Amino acid sequence: MTNEDIHYLSAVDLAAAIKSKELSPVEVTEATLARIEHLNPTLNCFCTSMAEEARADAKEAEAAVMRGDELGPLHGVPVSVKDIVAVKDSRTTSGSQLLKDYVTRDDAPSIAKLRKAGAILIGRTNTPEFGWKGVTDSPLFGITRNPWNTNLTPGGSSGGAAAAVAAGMGPIGVGTDGGGSVRIPAAFCGLVGMKASFGRIANFPATPVDSLRHTGPLTRTVADAALAVDIMSGPDERDPCSLPCSGVSYLTELDAGIDDVRVAYSPDLGYAVVDPEIATLCEASANRLRDAGAVVEQVDLGWHDPYDCWVSFFYGGIGAAHCRRPPEELELLDPGLRKLVDVAANLTAVDLVKATMVRSAFWQRVWPLFNEYDLLITPALAVKPFPVGQNNADPPGEPDARHLRWSAFTYPFNLTGQPACSVPCGWSDSQLPIGLQIIGRRFDDSTVLRAARALEQLQPWADRRPVIPSNK
Predict the structure, then answer these.
(1) Cα gap 177→216, rounded to integer Å
(2) What is the full per-residue pLDDT of the chain (472 aa) written as tens digits?
């Protein structure tokens, strides 16, 4: 098996090849680290290497294979971790000059479970400062680029994780999603990005946006996403919002099919303005689910955009966390984040209560749909990947530009906490990936993943790979 084969094997297939001794954990780890060394100067996915630890862990994993030990479901498989998720004894900077030397003492619950499953942590991936925006560049580590076109953004805030997986630098990247930060880069990079039900994957340490925040995987295949959710799920006493174990293996249920599943397709949720090429591809893909046995109907929802409500919780939370910093520290922040700090400083308790009530009212519009339908399908994003150096898809200086307006389909479902997954549904005429979003009832992650799997079988995407120029 060549290194090129190894780079694009799924996590499921890598784990099977290691268990059968067709591949060794050391071989896989070395191939992945070599890939990172070759391509990271171009893409800037990784901001902190864990190569030394990865090599030591790979040797231990190989010894376990040779002894005939019982192996975990990700034994010897390389996994990257967003530089905002706690990893024990690792520098966790959140992309900020303020934390450039900060080392976390404990693993986040998801990371501890990945280790227990045998995963090899290979490095930390780039994020915008404190994950505040939907593109990936930070004052500390600079710009991350999209493997499909290095002049364009991979999205964010888990853009480093997405670019790494799309470029064959490990089959699973761990990201976080407070307004689309797993699904946005999944759509821009041609990946599966799964935001499981709120609380399905426990969060710790706490953040200012915990009522919106989901930890989730970025992968090239639906099976890898299901396996990652299986592994990372479960309660943790440090997170009072974490859910009990579902008793479901999402990987095992993946091919149960979607016969008679009722699907509502909305092209705009009632308010989004969508690129025509994206609209065409997404509608065609949603309708293809009929071939898998689903009942698909287009719906006119007429919802109102909950952006301002989401802003109060997300930007208000991040900004409020920093508004009492001394001036010399504020000057080190990303200029866009610095402006949000000033806005957050003027928010009141009345503003937060109003936002809480608007959030509740929005849910009262959403849940009745899922009495009639099992799934809601939408475009994942309203736009194609845009140039690096911009914070949003609007032309620089446009007076009504709003961060994440172009991601009008993602942040609503952080407010509701429902499971939502972005999957590739085609490529544009300019050979850029387009994403489709699948949203399920609260706690029904299984049906979301089964629908994603059905689409993957109808129009496979995993064999399509970007051609990446090298700076070396």
Answers:
(1) 7
(2) 677 789 999 999 999 999 999 999 999 999 999 999 999 999 999 999 999 999 999 999 999 999 999 999 999 999 999 999 999 999 999 999 999 999 999 999 999 999 999 999 999 999 999 999 999 999 999 999 999 999 999 999 999 999 999 999 999 999 999 999 999 999 999 999 999 999 999 999 999 999 999 999 999 999 999 999 999 999 999 999 999 999 999 999 999 999 999 999 999 999 999 999 999 999 999 999 999 999 999 999 999 999 999 999 999 999 999 999 999 999 999 999 999 899 898 999 999 999 999 999 999 999 999 999 999 999 999 999 999 998 877 655 554 556 788 999 999 999 999 999 999 999 999 999 999 999 999 999 999 999 999 999 999 999 999 999 876 5
**CA–CA distance, 138 with 141 (Å, rounded to integer):** 5
Q: How far apart are CA 213 and CA 106, in angstroms?
A: 19
* Torsion (CA) 25, 30, 36, 38 in degrees, nearest 10: -150
Tell me if the pTM is above 0.85. yes
Annotated active-site positions, please? 82, 157, 181
Looking at 204-249, which runs of residues are DSSP E strands? 214-219
Q: Is-contact 287 296, C-beta < 8 A?
A: yes
Helices assigned H by DSSP within 273-423: 276-288, 307-320, 327-330, 335-345, 349-366, 369-372, 412-416
- Structural domains in the chain plus CATH codes: 3-458 (3.90.1300.10)
**CA-to-CA distance for 60 and 166, rounded, in angstroms?**
28
Rounded Cα–Cα distance for residues 343 and 238 (Å): 31
Q: Can you tell me which residue has the tokens 């470029």?
A: 167
